[in-house]
Amino acid sequence: MRKVLLILAGLLVVALAALLVLPGFWDWNRYRGAIAAQVESWTGRDFAIEGDVRLSLLPAPSLAASGLRLANPPGFSAPDMATVRELRVRLAPWPLLRGEVRAESVELIGPAVHLERLADGRVNWDFARGAAAPPDGAGQGLEQGPERGGGLSLRLDSAVLRDGVIDYRRPGGLTRIAGLDGRLAAGSLDGPFRGEGRMTVNGEPVAFEFRSGRIGLPEAQPLSATVEFPEAKAKLQFSGTEALGPDGLRQAAGRLEVSAGNGARLARAVGAVAGQKISLRAGPAAQAGSLEAHLTASAAAVTLDELVILLGETRASGRAVIALGPPLGIDATLATARLDLDAWLADAPAGAVAPVPVPGAASSAPPSAAAAPKTALPDLRARLDLAAEAVQFRGGLLRQARLREALHDGVFAIAELTAQL
Q1: Cis ω before 146 (30° cut-off from 0)
Q2: What is the pLDDT of residues 189-220, one digit of tens each?
Q3: 83 in helix, strand or coil?
Q4: Euclidean distance between CA atoms 239 and 361, whole angstroms
Q5: For residues 318 and 416, what is the distance between their CA atoms, to the nearest angstrom?
């Protein structure tokens, strides 16, 4: 009897070993069509796996696939919305027995995402049109997460992106992120999240790091982010919360701190990221500086309250509102104790500053918009209301100066310029 039991135990071990080992030798490529058909039924888009599919259970359940391609809908410029050169997924085995999916690692090598908004308002990331509903219950647990009572728990220990590309094409503009290398971790599909990485945005090197709480919840969740522009020796830091705003839009609120070794180089970097060319010569703009403010941001606008700007020895305070458009709009009200206008005008490019008449006591001399200079920012609309207690101008000193200036369609227009001698 004992011998029979030993034989049965040996057969069980062999069968179990075969069950664990054989998937690594199975030709899973024969199932590429079935997998693609399932993805197509969920997305309403053509999907293809043009490379190999590999599955193994030892030493841990893992999946690898190459040559993934998700097509664009008709009418968009690129044939594909997304491609992935290679995908690798490794799961923790024991949580699967409890109905939990814990991805120890996910690697996306060479992902390329092409986002596009057409002039008629259509976007290629809208999967609602033409997509079939998933089978009953499919995806519900993933969307809800464990804390909301979903049937399936998912945790992502580490997701690595290597050599990623993201394009965002819209009427009149293109934003391109290239060389994206990053790492992401998530407690569930709803968060919390943390990540870090580096990339170039429209050719400008950028490094980033962020942490966030759960997404989609009505109560405030922690949110922090750091963005660095290495070539400008500049850093932007935000620490605050994210929640549903009074207008029904998600919004972030908290403290923003910016430091830069060269203000002109930072302006150039931010302009490049925004798709605008900003070129300032050395001089006052090229000094080290900082900015502090209480930031409130949504998809529609960014508001900077309690704004304090330091550039060299110049300090200005006030408020600014940035409408994210399109078009992009900036409305700023600033006050400063002293402004060396001679230094700023001396470093302005030729033709970039309109001739300014010498103001008399309590005089007002608004030049016409037609005589104002053109700028390299045709898609930007801006308004500046600047008050200065003292202004150094042409070797003299002006007091109680006030400047109201507007930028529209690439043209500067001075609406008001007053001062006391």
Answers
A1: no
A2: 788 999 999 999 999 999 999 999 998 787 89
A3: strand
A4: 46
A5: 19
Closest CA relative to residue 401, chosen from 340, 312, 345:
340
Nearest-angstrom CA–CA distance, 262 and 46: 48
Do residues 319 and 330 make contact, with C-beta atoms less than 8 angstroms apart? no
Q: What is the CA radius of gyration of the chain?
A: 29
Distance from the Cα of residue 393 to its chain's centroid: 41
Query: What digits encode the pLDDT tens for the residues 361-409?
Result: 344 444 443 344 444 455 678 899 999 999 888 888 889 999 898 887 7
Q: Is the pLDDT of residue 18 over 70?
A: no
Q: Is 45 helix (H, G, I), strand (E, B) or coil?
A: coil
Q: Report whether the peptide linkage leading into residue 59 is cis, meaning its omega lies within 30 degrees of zero.
A: yes
CB 407 within 8 A of CB 377: yes
Distance separating alpha carbons of residues 388 and 338, to the nearest angstrom: 6
Regarding beta strands 396-408 and 380-393, do their DSSP bridges make them parallel or antiparallel, or are they unpaired? antiparallel
- Residue (of 380, 374, 364, 365) closest to 412 by Cα position: 374
Report the alpha-carbon distance of residue 193 to residue 156 in Å, rounded: 9
pLDDT at 302 over 90: yes
CA atoms of 376 and 250, how far apart (whole Å): 33
Q: Are 161 and 182 in contact (CB under 8 A)?
A: yes
Q: Which helix (H) or strand (E) element contains residue 35?
A: helix 32-43
Residue from 160, 76, 62 nearest 110 by CA: 160
Residues sharing a CB contact under 8 Å with residue 3, sequence separation 6 or more, in sequence order? none
Assign 155 to helix, strand or coil.
strand
Give tens-digit pLDDT for 267-286.
889 888 877 777 776 678 88
